[in-house]
Design brief:
The complex is a heterodimer of chains A (314) and B (290).
Chain A: H1 2-28, H2 34-39, H3 45-55, H4 61-73, H5 87-122, H6 127-141, H7 144-158, H8 174-208, H9 211-218, H10 223-260, H11 266-275, H12 279-307, H13 309-313
Helix pairs in contact in A: 1-12, 5-6, 5-8, 5-10, 6-8, 7-8, 7-10, 8-10, 9-10, 10-11, 10-12, 11-12
Chain B: H1 14-43, H2 77-113, H3 115-129, H4 133-143, H5 148-175, H6 178-185, H7 190-227, H8 238-247, H9 257-281, H10 283-289
Helix pairs in contact in B: 1-2, 1-9, 2-3, 2-5, 2-7, 2-9, 3-5, 4-5, 5-7, 6-7, 7-8, 7-9, 8-9, 9-10
Classes of the chains: A mainly alpha (314), B mainly alpha (290).
Chain lengths: 314, 290
C-alpha cells in the first residue's frame, strides 16, 4: 500500500515538473522581450540589456528553468511585470476567492447529484427516472456562463436578491462574501451536477445488479434499505474518479464564471495578465492551476486505492 | 464490427428502447437542423447579419419582421444566430479533427507497443490532460493573438489525451483478438495491422467519442469567445454575442437568451446523437445500460 502511495507521488512530482517545463517553454518562446515590456518601448538598449541580465533572461533555457523551479519550491514565483508585486502573494490572494467558489460548487454538485442519481436508479424505467435523465441531459447542454448570465438577470437585476457581481472580501464578514459567491457557485454546479447525476445513476444501477444486494434483499432488507446502506456505498467508489475530474473542471470553469460575476479570482487574474502581456504572472497562474489539477488526481487515486478493498489487497 | 457476447437486445424493455430511439431521432433532427441552418445562412438570411440600423436598436422579438428582435446596433438577432451556427460547426469540426488526427495514432502506438512506450505516452497524455481547454487557450493567446484559430487549436490539443486514451483502451482489446494475431503472423507491420484491422473495429467507439467531443468543443469555443479569447468581430459567434449581451443585461436582458439557447440546443443535439450512436453501434452497451 505504502509502495503504491510513494509510486503515485513520484508520478505526481514528475507530472508537475513536465507541466511546469511545458509552460516555461511556451512562455520562453513567446514573441516579445519581457525586459522591453517592463521598461516600455522608449527604453534604451543598454537599460533593456541590463534588465535582461538582472532577470537572468540571457542565460540558457534550462538554467533559467532550474532557477525558477528552485524559487518556486520555496514559494517564490517571481515578480509581476506590470505591478512589480510578488506573484505568489497575488495568487494566494486570488485563491481566497477561487478555491471557496470551487468548493461551494462541488458541495452543491454532490448535494444535488447523489440524491437525484440514486432516486433515478431506484425508479429505474419509471417516470421519475425519465424526468431525472431528461433534466440531466438538458443540464449537460447548458453553458455554465450562460446559466450565470440568466441567474444574474433574474436574481440580481430583476429581483435584487443577490449582488450582480463583485466580491466584498472575507474581511467584510462571512455572509456578504458567501452571498457574492452563491450565484456563481450555482451556475457551475448546475452543469456539473447534471454530469455527476448520470454517473451516480449508472453506478448505482450497476451495483444493484450485484450478488450482495440480492443477498441483502434475501435477508429481509427492503429495496430502499439495501440501496442506501449497501448500494450507495459501493457505487460511490467509481464515482470518486468522476468527482476528481469534476473538481478539475470546476477550477477551469471558474475562469469563465469569474468573468461573468466580476470576481477577483485566479481566472480573472490570468485574463488581466494576458491583456497586460504580464507573462510571468500568466506562467505562475497557469502552473498553480495545473498543479492543483494534478494534485486532485493524486488524491483521488490514493483515496480510490484505500476505498476499494480489492485494490488495497493487491 | 464488435460481436455481441451478451444476450441480444431482444430482452430489452420495449418502452425503454423506444425512449432511447426517440432520443437518437431528436438528436439527429437537431443536428440536421443546425447543419442545414449553417448551409442556408451561407446563402440567405432574413437580414444582413452585420447591417447596422440606428433607427431599429433594441427592437423586441417579432417587431418589424425581426423574429428575435434587434441588438444595440439594430442588427437582426435571428440572422446573427443563423450565421453563428457556421462558426460553431467550423470550430467543432476542426478542433475534433486535430484531436483525432493526433490522438488516434498516439493511442494506437501505445496499444501496439505496450511497455515503456505505452507508459511514457500515457504519462504525457496525463500531463496534457491537466491543461483544461480554457487554460491551453490562455497560453495560446499569450503566444499569439486572440482569435478563432488559436482557440480551435487549443481546444483540439486539450482533447488529444481523451482521444488517445479511448483509442488505446479500445485498441488493446482488439489487439488480443485472433484475427489480429493471424495478420501479425503473416508478417504484416504493426502500423498496417493497426490501420487495416484495429481501427475499423474500434470505429464505433471513436465515432461516439467524436460526437461527444464535438459538443464539448462548441461549449469551449463559446466560453473562449465569451472571454474575448476566441472568435473576434466581425465574425458572428454565439459566445461573442453573449459577451456583448452581458454589458447590456439591465437594458436588454433578452439579448442574452437567444445565443445561449442556440448553444444549448446544438450541444443537446450532439449529446443525444452521441448517446443514440453508442446504443446503435454497440448492442452490448445497450444491454448493460438497459
Amino acid at each position: 500500500m505504502l509502495g503504491y502511495v510513494v509510486r503515485r507521488f513520484l508520478i505526481f512530482l514528475a507530472s508537475v515538473i513536465a507541466a511546469s517545463l511545458l509552460v516555461f517553454f511556451v512562455m520562453s518562446v513567446l514573441p516579445g522581450d519581457p525586459a522591453v515590456v517592463m521598461l516600455g518601448t522608449q527604453a534604451t538598449p543598454e537599460s533593456v540589456e541590463a534588465l535582461r541580465e538582472e532577470l537572468g533572461l540571457n542565460r540558457p533555457f534550462l538554467a533559467q528553468y532550474f532557477d525558477w523551479a528552485w524559487s518556486a519550491v520555496r514559494g517564490d514565483l517571481g515578480v509581476s511585470f506590470f505591478s512589480g508585486i510578488a506573484i505568489s502573494g497575488q495568487i494566494a490572494e486570488r485563491l481566497k476567492v477561487t478555491l471557496p467558489l470551487a468548493f461551494m460548487a462541488m458541495t452543491m454538485t454532490i448535494l444535488v447529484a447523489f440524491p437525484a442519481g440514486v432516486f433515478a436508479a431506484a425508479r429505474h424505467r419509471r417516470p421519475g427516472d425519465t424526468v431525472v435523465s431528461v433534466s440531466s441531459q438538458i443540464g449537460l447542454a447548458i453553458p455554465a456562463f450562460w446559466a450565470g448570465l440568466i441567474l444574474v438577470t433574474v436574481f440580481a437585476v430583476n429581483l435584487s436578491w443577490f449582488p450582480a457581481g463583485g466580491f466584498p472580501g472575507w474581511d467584510e464578514g462571512f455572509w456578504p462574501a458567501f452571498q457574492a459567491l452563491l450565484l456563481p457557485a450555482i451556475s457551475l454546479a448546475l452543469v456539473q451536477s447534471a454530469i455527476l447525476t448520470r454517473y451516480v445513476r449508472s453506478a448505482v444501477l450497476e451495483t444493484l445488479k450485484l450478488d450482495f444486494i440480492r443477498t441483502a434483499r434475501a435477508k429481509g432488507l427492503s429495496r430502499s434499505a439495501a440501496l442506501w446502506r449497501h448500494g450507495l456505498r459501493n457505487a460511490s467508489i467509481p464515482v470518486l474518479t468522476v468527482l476528481g475530474l469534476q473538481f478539475a473542471a470546476l477550477l477551469a470553469g471558474t475562469v469563465v464564471i469569474e468573468s461573468v460575476f466580476v470576481l477577483p479570482g485566479l481566472g480573472s487574474m490570468l485574463l488581466q495578465a494576458i491583456t497586460r502581456r504580464d507573462l510571468f504572472l500568466v506562467q505562475g497562474g497557469a502552473i498553480v492551476i495545473v498543479t492543483f489539477i494534478l494534485m486532485i488526481s493524486l488524491v483521488v487515486d490514493i483515496v480510490y486505492h484505500f476505498a476499494d478493498p480489492r485494490l488495497r489487497a493487491q | 464490427m464488435s460481436t455481441p457476447d451478451a444476450p441480444l437486445p431482444v430482452e430489452l424493455d420495449h418502452k425503454r428502447r423506444r425512449f432511447r430511439r426517440a432520443n437518437f431521432i431528436i438528436g439527429l433532427v437537431i443536428v440536421a437542423t443546425v447543419i442545414l441552418t449553417a448551409i442556408l445562412s451561407a446563402f440567405w438570411t432574413p437580414y444582413d447579419p452585420s447591417a447596422i440600423s440606428p433607427s431599429e436598436v433594441f427592437l423586441p422579438p417579432g417587431s418589424s419582421g425581426h423574429i428575435l428582435g434587434t441588438d444595440q446596433f439594430g442588427r437582426d438577432v435571428f440572422s446573427q444566430i443563423m450565421v453563428g451556427s457556421q462558426n460553431a460547426l467550423f470550430v467543432g469540426v476542426l478542433a475534433v479533427m486535430i484531436a483525432i488526427v493526433i490522438g488516434i495514432p498516439l493511442g494506437g502506438l501505445a496499444a501496439a507497443k505496450r511497455g515503456w512506450i505505452e507508459d511514457l505516452l500515457m504519462r504525457i497524455s496525463d500531463v496534457i490532460y491537466a491543461f483544461p481547454a480554457v487554460l491551453t487557450a490562455i497560453l495560446f493567446v499569450a503566444a499569439f493573438q486572440p482569435g478563432r484559430t488559436p482557440a480551435m487549436i487549443a481546444i483540439g490539443i486539450a482533447y488529444i489525451p481523451i482521444v488517445a486514451r479511448v483509442t488505446r483502451g479500445a485498441a488493446l482489446s482488439v489487439f488480443q483478438l485472433d484475427f489480429v494475431t493471424a495478420a501479425r503472423s503473416y508478417g504484416r507491420s504493426q502500423n498496417f495491422v493497426f490501420w487495416r484491422h484495429v481501427v475499423p473495429n474500434i470505429l464505433s467507439v471513436l465515432i461516439v467519442q467524436a460526437t461527444v467531443l464535438f459538443a464539448l468543443a462548441i461549449l469551449a469555443e463559446a466560453a473562449l469567445s465569451f472571454l474575448g479569447l476566441g472568435t473576434q468581430p466581425p465574425t458572428p459567434s454565439w459566445g461573442r454575442s453573449l459577451r456583448d449581451a452581458q454589458t447590456l443585461i439591465s437594458k436588454a436582458p433578452g439579448l442574452a437568451i437567444w445565443p445561449g439557447l442556440a448553444i444549448a440546443f446544438t450541444v443537446l443535439g450532439f449529446n443525444l446523437l452521441g448517446d443514440g450512436l453508442r446504443d446503435a453501434l454497440d448492442p452490448r452497451l445497450e444491454v448493460r445500460n438497459a
